[in-house]
Amino acid sequence: MATRSSAENDAEQPFRVMPWWLVLGGFVLAIGFGLLVTWWLWNIADTGGASRAALRIDAVRTGLTVVAGTGGAVGLLLVGRRQWLNERTQQHREQVDAITRAHQERVQAHVEATAAADRTARDRAMEISEYDATERRVTDLFAKAVEHLGSDNAPVRLGGVYALERLAHNNERYRHATADVLCAYLRMPVRREASDEEHVRLAIQRIVTRRIRSGPDSWAGLRLDLAGARLDGFDAAGCDFNDVDFTGSTFAGSTTFDDSRFHGEARFGGAKFLGDACLRRTQWHVPVDFSGADWQSAVNFDESVFEQHARFDQNRFGDQRISFRETTFRRTVTFDHSRLGEATFGRAGFESNASFEHVEFGDAVSFRGAVFGGIGMFRRSVFTGAVDFSDARFGEHVSFDRVDFTGGVSFGPGPIERMSAVRARIGVHSIRQLPAAWIEQPLDDEWVGLAPSV
Fold this sequence. Notes:
The protein is an alpha/beta fold. The longest helix is centred in the first third of the chain and has 97 residues. Helix 3 runs antiparallel to helix 4. It has a 10-stranded parallel beta sheet. It has 2 domains: 125 residues, no CATH class; 230 residues.
């Protein structure tokens, strides 16, 4: 319970009314005191001799004076009490008024608080009602749009696709669900019996890529699950991928990822690229997995940057040109057990380890001007065409153990420190320019062994 104020306590104390007998007693006391004084002086006057009469008169006069003075004192006390009562009454009235105002203010504040709480409750109830109505409406629209995707009529399916996009754009909570539905449609087998199916799938691809490009209309943070999907003419140039899965996907036609950025997981394992693939100036801020990918046409990774581990193991590159010109690999990159055709890594930067073990290289392979900052491994690889390592720089150990240079090899004229070529060999008639301090050892009529001098 709150402590009561002193004003409230004073206001509740009752006034003490002076009884009538107390006033009467005061005047009786004054008269009695005056008589006592008169009697005392009267007795003194009796001893005055010839002046006794005058003394008695003075005694009476003095007694009356005492009575008057005592009565006046009592009167002054009564007047003082009346003034004190008036002041007390005024103070009491002011305190009561203050308490009344405070009470009224509390009552008014309570009324206002109650009214505000009622308004808040009504507003909350209205918001809940509107939210429920909106959710029901949006859910119905979402369900109808998804239902349209199952139609045999291409315009109906297109209408469902664009209805989903508009719905998700206006309702952020539905963006991930919409992206999942659209990606699921692309993951389903192509409906050959449906009319204009390619137009529907192309529209979905454009919607997906448009919404992950930087801009005011982008849907940030989407996760795209396109594992096993068939994508025709997939154009994702300039897109920002948060988390994408292309495992086992088939890219038909020309595929473009130029200037794209990958900020989340990126999985391309087992993907198949049937047409040209352009991935120039792409930025990979996360580990990327291209293991088992099949590239059946030209591939271009020029000027790309791989910030994390990049895996190209067991890749099959076609006979068309493969270019990693001026590409930067900041972490380990592996091409083990892959088949590369006409490949160029000119001025590529391998800032960490690079592994090309058990790789089959095609014609005209170039590492001209490449920089190997870490360990370079080419063990058991086969170069069926000419390979150019001119102006390449090797910072740490590089191994060409059991490598076949069938079509010839060209190194810079200077020596290469910490380099091994145990049992490497080159064709007898192949053109070659070896590093300083390397020697040739004839093996048979077709091969010449290469090894650094001891």
